[in-house]
Amino acid sequence: MYKIIFFLLIFVNILFCSNHVVSKFEFREDKSSKNIAPVLHPKSHINIFLPSIPYSYVAKATNAGLIRSYDNEQGWVYDLAKSHERVDDFTYIFELRKNLKFQNGENFTMDDVLYNLNFFKKHPLLYTNIDKIDFEVIKLDEYRFKIVLKEKYEMFLTDLARVFFYTKEYIDKYNPIGKETGTANKAAGAFSLGPYILKEGFALGELQTEKLELVANPYYWNKEYPKIKSITVYTQLDINKAIKDISMMEGKLDLMPIPFNKKLDIVLSDYSKLIISKSTDNFVLFFNLINGNTKLQNKNVRQALNQAVNQENLLNFVYKKEGEVSPFTASINYDIVRKIANKYKYEEIQLSEEELNKSLNGLELNIFTQDRFMFLLKGIEFQLKKYGVVFNYTITNSEKDIYKQLLSTNTNKNTQNWDLLVWGDDDWYYQNPWTLFFIYETSGAWSTIGKDDLMQEYIKQYFVSKIGTQEYENVTKDILFRARDMAYTLRVPSLNKVIAVNKEVIYKPYQGGIIPLWEIEITNNHWSLRDNPIYDDSLKKSIKPKRINDEINK
Length: 554
Known about the structure:
Largest sheet: 4 strands, mixed
Number of strands: 22
Low-confidence stretches: 1-7, 16-23, 550-554
């Protein structure tokens, strides 16, 4: 037995901590794409677990806007709109697709566009700057309309990917006013135009059901999608049980992100395979500078904590090399962040071991986290113990508990005493570091940094800087450098997406915070379609982990 364990450890080290593959370990070919089941087979069904921002992922699958975030150079594709023109800094003209229908079969008309956009103008979302921007919506004809901003705002088009269109019934009955998280799925029903209909459950961020049921929208404008008839989404599961469900059982789970230390469980699984891709998602470790440990008010202590964490060791031994060291909390995989990291060298005074010990010895931190991040925190704790830092854990399996505390801290209404809080900040804004920068906007609920007037000036400039200009590069650099100077978070390496997927599921992940449920396919051997409940032994052989090409779709 000890010899078996010894050789397994060697296997892990070679396969997952280097670029070499064990030559004698035989993998079978993944032939799933050669045996695809018929589209929308009435029995087709998958179960997925979304531990981070499930409300956002589900909203993007059940709703539709003028554009949709996407993995291409501009970061989006047209959805309900078929084209647009930016006339000047303030004016956009959109043309709708024809024959659009709501999920209930009713026609989607220009009247619905005007009703929705005017409702949104009065009740905008609260996590960009759109809530402070006035605009006018003008009908041009039955398919074209004009939006005129009252002031310059360069994030407007990107914001539109988060502006969904609903039936008047949903707006009047459920009042989906903008909040710090989402209000697109307050109730089940055929209320929007997305590829899936929310059949059961709800997901809002701070509130959510543990399970949601989705069913294919027969009226979706793009007849190529969706591919699968129904999907069950789990929002909160014990992480260790979820790993067992997807690796050791069939029919329990078909897709979930996994802690990096669980890769071997998936590779050796009879039922699952590993898919890995470059990502613009972020792990954010907030310091509580509002009402946390008073020692954290000292910038030198926060800087010492960051310097005491060996990033390369985290990457190699905790991340299992699934990521890349970044000089900033924002993912190095944002094009603009990588450009700045390569072009401008961040300089800081390196503290000696004696200085680190003096700053950190005896520091006790209350940690609030989801269980899925314990692998990361234990790696950090191991390093900081050397300097006398003590971690006290409060652990939950539900992100809604994280939101309840995080979003109430800036107003001193949090009920959980925390000093360091971990959040999976998947790239919800898409290929734009605002996904991370919004936590530095001190007037917002997401901020725990206290007062910083200089950072607020940088953020104001960011809102009006056009992507691709030197002005945009400069202000992005200013925000990145300011955040690191002030050590507002505990920095960790940027991460890859590491996803466990059923062997009979065909799935290609996006880089950012979208899981394209409508694009997922299954094979004829999938458990939901097979007549024989027993999975063929020949298919249980391990599949080599698949690494998605770093190049985004053109």
